[in-house]
Amino acid sequence: MAHDAELDLVEVAPNSVPPVCRIMDFGKFLYERTKKDKEARKAQVKIEVKEIRLRPKTNSAHRGFKVDDARRWLNAGMKVRATIRFRGREITYPEIALEDLREIAEELADVAVVEVAPSFEGRTMFMMLAPIVKAKKKTTGKESIAETVEEATPETQESQD
């Protein structure tokens, strides 16, 4: 039947019982599938991870510059990894680094949430921060226009009085 129509017999679902086959142009099927896969890859959102590196002895002024950079990245939708690297005997005082990471998390609490709590990895302690996602209400065009008209109306009435 497929040979008479100059098409191919393609096994669509080989794992089902019984296996499902379809008569179609296999070249066209492959082309459409690769095209759909490309579109799916384009639609994916790639989240970039930025890093701020500190030491336990980093003073608050320099940490402030790093926190400002982290705030800018979080507002842009990127994740931020805060890393504190220990050298020499600094590793015997992990509470200093833990306190620094807590202060960073508190300073960025308005724009970020702690995704990975502070933890050790070799001679470094790190914490991952993710931007806070604000849920937006989806409305149709007519509803949003009606809402803006209703909001604008009281203001104009007050100014005319």
Q: Brief description of this entry?
A:
With 161 residues, the chain is α+β, with helices and mostly antiparallel strands.
Question: If you had to describe this structure to a student in words, what would you say it looks like?
Answer:
With about 160 residues, this protein is an alpha+beta fold. The chain has two domains: about 1-30, Ubiquitin-like (UB roll); about 50-130, Translation Initiation Factor IF3, CATH 3.30.110. The protein has helices at about 25-45, 60-75, 95-105, 140-160, and strands at about 10-15, 20-25, 50-55, 80-85, 110-120, 125-130. The strands form two sheets. It has a four-stranded mixed beta sheet with strand order 3-4-6-5, covered by helices on one side. The chain has a two-stranded antiparallel sheet with strand order 1-2. A hairpin with a 2-residue loop joins β5 (about 110-120) and β6 (about 125-130). The model is unreliable at about 145-160 (pLDDT under 50).
Entry keywords:
alpha+beta, four-stranded mixed β-sheet, two-stranded antiparallel sheet, 6 strands, disordered C terminus
- What fold name stands as the CATH topology of the largest domain? Translation Initiation Factor IF3
Alpha-beta content class:
alpha+beta
Enumerate the strands of the largest sheet in spatial order, edge to edge or round the barrel: 3-4-6-5
What does the average pLDDT come to? 81
The largest sheet, given as strand count, sense and whether it forms a barrel, is: 4 strands, mixed
Number of helices: 4
Q: Name the overall outline.
A: elongated
> Over all CA atoms, what is the radius of gyration?
28 Å
What is the CATH class designation of the largest domain? Alpha Beta
What string, H for helix and E for strand, traces the elements in order? EEHEHEHEEH
Q: How many strand units? A: 6
Terminal Cα span: 82 Å
- The CATH H-level homologous superfamily of the largest domain: Translation initiation factor 3 (IF-3), C-terminal domain
The helicity comes to 40-55%
